[in-house]
Design brief:
The complex is a heterodimer of chains A (about 400) and B (about 325). Chain A is mainly alpha-helical and about 400 residues long. Chain A has helices at about 1-15, 15-20, 25-45, 50-55, 70-90, 95-100, 115-135, 135-145, 145-160, 165-175, 190-225, 225-240, 245-255, 265-275, 275-290, 295-300, 305-315, 320-340, 355-365, 370-395; strands at about 110, 160-165. In chain A, about 75% of the residues lie in helices and about 0% in strands. In chain A, strands 1-2 form a two-stranded antiparallel sheet. In chain A, helix 8 crosses helix 9, helix 11 (about 190-225) runs antiparallel to helix 12 and helix 16 (about 295-300) crosses helix 17 (about 305-315). Chain B is an all-alpha fold and about 325 residues long. Chain B has helices at about 1-30, 30-35, 45-50, 60-70, 85-120, 125-140, 145-165, 180-210, 215-220, 225-235, 240-265, 270-280, 280-310, 315. The chains are: A mainly alpha (about 400), B mainly alpha (about 325).
Chain lengths: ~400, ~325
């Protein structure tokens, strides 16, 4: 506890930290990032949203979110889906067993006998057939107000098959349909939120490892000089001379067909191998300056080893650069993930913003913007917060930096 | 000056050797022959194909052979996917479309962002500056892909429906300058909008920094008009970072052209390379990657030379 307290005091004593804390916009950004990381941790460690829930069907295809009243077509499709689910279960060889297993997006079946159910279904299908015959529902509704009444009666019939959810379940049911559904009837909101976990995971792992590799290589290059320096400089000029996207695609395609295909390992390795260059270059420059300072001479005079001076005395003085680079690489990783997913080389087994934006391409042509809008919104908030934070970090700790 | 150019070129030779080494190794991690023939191929067919393609030889020999080919500009290897077409042939076909997007995009991006940067630093601290910079940060936070999807929807699809004609094509490519506006204008505009967020911020920072220098204070003290100071004195001195930046944007443009080519069905180099990767077309992948790296290094050298032209002190370093 005391160590923690001392740590806090030390942190608050730093001029840069005080400067950062005075920046209100940066604090808001920090709060936003904390919320995102918190959600990611909840999903990762406590399974608040499971992977199955992101692929579960909760409604008809491409249903709009709450702010847009659904078209008559999609209302019809929605109620039909409810009927169909029950009908399918009834048509099974052992209806009782199949019915017991029906759980449609938090909705449970109402306690009805098989005959009652069948009666409701027949009534529903009759209404459906009448409505389905009209090929343009909107035009028909304009001509004849009876169509609208028929549609709401059909919806009511479908609803009577299910028990109205109450309390928590009702909230959950509503929440899932809040931002509509994608082309496979999956909840857009659930998928967007689950993507926070994927994005955070990729961002943290890729940025952390890249910064570590970059710091160690850059620090060693500058501090030891000689052939180490030549080697590291050659290595980073080599890697930075391959166009970034070529390197990324080649590295990601290395795993095609292997047992890691589709998981996060190809993404991680592609990012780490292409991202370490920026921190390496920056920290090499900083250590070149630092190693001429008196405290290094003092440490040498006391007789500390070279490696110890580098790790314990020089590198901690580059911590601010590590933070700035971490923040920048985090953004880079999230944005690059979208691009990799688009090229078909990114995340495959899980939903991610990239996958969602990629899937929404066909929907946009049909004027459906909920999926791309939702994924973009969730992503922009996080990336914007990180952009603001990076700027504030740079202002607070590295004011001379340009750009 | 010439000795400087030669020095820069020589310096980049080991770098290029390294690039080829890294890429050749990376391309062999996932056995290209297996990827091509599929898991069901018989071991004999596998072995025969491997030997025929020279992939059975030890790695160092493959490396030297490939290097020899690259330095002799010999790109006559046949593509595994398109029979009878050489890598060089594919390159010749796909080079012009890429150029038709990247060069205009580079010019347009630089021109607009430098102007916006100038305006922003001219009104430094006032609402226009703040609004512009907030827009830039916001623009940076949106994914490239979102710009492309919406750009295609509103710029081509919805617009064409609205004007009942075709100003910009939804996708596709036809060669020839007459078709440029139809097929390339929209990708160029999208790429410009995406790059602007990063560039304007950089140019503004450069110009704001330059504003604090002594020569500006001197000019102000002499009573020179502010406009003249900004556009004549400062812009000239800000040229070094500007040139560097323009060159640094190049890789970004290459990436942009990759995505735009994929999305708008433009048969450029990026699309060709990605198709080669997905169809396990090994010679094309290897050849294209080598060419990409070469172009990249040459632009790096060009940057250094331009830099030295503007600032003679660099030549001595």
């Amino acid at each position: 506890m005391r160590a923690l307290d001392r740590g806090f005091r030390w942190l608050l004593g730093q001029r840069g930290v005080r400067k950062l804390l005075r920046d209100r916009v940066a604090l808001v950004a920090l709060a936003v990032i904390s919320v995102y990381v918190g959600i990611a941790a909840l999903i990762l460690f406590f399974d608040v949203i499971t992977l199955d829930e992101t692929t579960e069907r909760v409604g008809p295809r491409t249903m709009p979110g709450v702010w847009e009243s659904p078209s008559l077509e999609s209302r019809l499709a929605f109620a039909e889906l409810y009927l169909e689910t029950v009908q399918n279960a009834l048509d099974k060889r052992s209806p009782e067993k199949a019915l017991a297993e029906v759980r449609f997006a938090e909705l449970e079946l109402a306690a009805l006998s098989i005959d009652e159910r069948q009666a409701l279904l027949d009534e529903g299908w009759d209404l459906f057939d009448e409505l389905d015959e009209l090929d343009d529902l909107d035009a028909a509704a304009e001509r004849d107000p009876g169509v609208l009444a028929k549609l709401s009666r059909f919806e009511e019939t479908a609803a009577r098959l299910y028990r109205r959810p109450t309390g928590c379940a009702a909230l959950k049911y509503r929440a899932r349909l809040l931002l509509g559904t994608d082309r496979q009837g999956r909840s857009i909101l659930v998928r967007s939120i689950y993507s926070i976990k994927v994005a955070t995971q990729i961002g943290v792992v890729a940025a952390l490892i890249s910064v570590l590799i970059g710091t160690l290589l850059g620090g060693a290059a500058a501090f030891f000089g000689g052939w180490v320096d030549h080697l590291v400089v050659w290595l980073y000029s080599t890697f930075s001379s391959i166009p970034w996207i070529v390197l990324l695609t080649v590295l990601a395609s290395m795993f095609m067909g292997s047992r890691f295909d589709g998981g996060l390992v190809p993404v991680y390795s592609a990012f780490c191998l292409s991202f370490w260059i920026a921190p390496c270059r920056v920290i090499r420059g900083e250590v070149l300056k630092l190693k001429e300072l008196e405290f290094v001479q003092a440490a040498t005079a006391i007789g500390f080893g070279r490696a110890r001076i580098l790790l314990k005395h020089v590198l901690p003085n580059t911590a601010h650069l590590m933070f700035i680079n971490f923040s920048l690489l985090f953004i880079g990783a999230i944005k690059a993930e979208v691009i990799l997913s688009f090229l078909g080389l990114g995340v495959k087994n899980e939903p991610s913003w990239g996958v969602m934006i990629n899937h929404s391409r066909e929907e946009v042509i049909n004027h459906f913007f909920w999926q791309i809008g939702s994924a973009t919104f969730f992503m922009v908030v996080l990336v914007l917060a990180f952009n603001v934070l990076s700027d504030a970090l740079q202002d607070a700790f590295d004011p001379k930096h340009v750009g | 000056m010439w000795s400087y150019i030669v020095r820069r070129l020589l310096y980049n030779v080991p770098v290029y050797l390294g690039i080829i080494l890294v890429l050749m190794l990376a391309l062999r991690v996932n056995d290209p022959v297996w990827a091509r023939l599929g898991k069901s191929a018989s071991p004999e067919a596998y072995q025969a194909f491997k030997e025929q393609m020279g992939l059975a030889e030890p790695f160092w020999r493959q490396y030297l052979t490939f290097l020899g080919k690259v330095f002799a500009f010999d790109l006559s290897d046949e593509s595994w996917e398109h029979t009878g077409v050489s890598v060089g042939g594919l390159l010749r076909v796909s080079f012009p479309p890429t150029l038709a997007i990247t060069v205009p995009a580079l010019l347009l991006t630089s021109l607009i962002s430098i102007s916006v940067g100038l305006v922003s630093s001219f009104f430094r601290g006032r609402w226009l500056d703040r609004a512009l910079m907030f827009a830039a940060v916001l623009g940076m936070s949106v994914s490239f892909l979102v710009y492309i999807v919406f750009g295609q929807y509103w710029g081509a699809y919805a617009l064409n429906e609205h004007i009942e004609g075709e100003l910009f094509a939804v996708a596709g490519y036809e060669p020839g300058p007459g078709n440029w506006v139809t097929y390339c204008m929209l990708p160029v505009l999208i790429s410009t909008i995406v790059a602007m967020g990063y560039d304007t911020r950089f140019y503004r920072a450069v110009m704001v920094e330059e504003c604090g220098r002594d020569y500006i204070v001197t000019a102000m003290a002499k009573g020179a008009p502010k406009r003249k100071i900004m556009f004549v004195h400062m812009l000239k001195n800000a040229m070094i970072p500007i040139i560097t930046r323009i060159m640094i944007t190049l890789p970004f443009l290459i990436m942009g052209s990759f995505l735009l080519e994929m999305y708008f069905n433009i048969p450029g180099m990026g699309r060709m390379l990605l198709q080669a990767i997905t169809t396990a077309d090994f010679p094309v992948t290897q050849g294209f990657v080598a060419v990409f790296a070469l172009v990249f290094i040459l632009t790096n050298v060009l940057t250094d030379v331009l830099y030295a032209l503007v600032d003679p002190r660099v030549r001595l370093a």
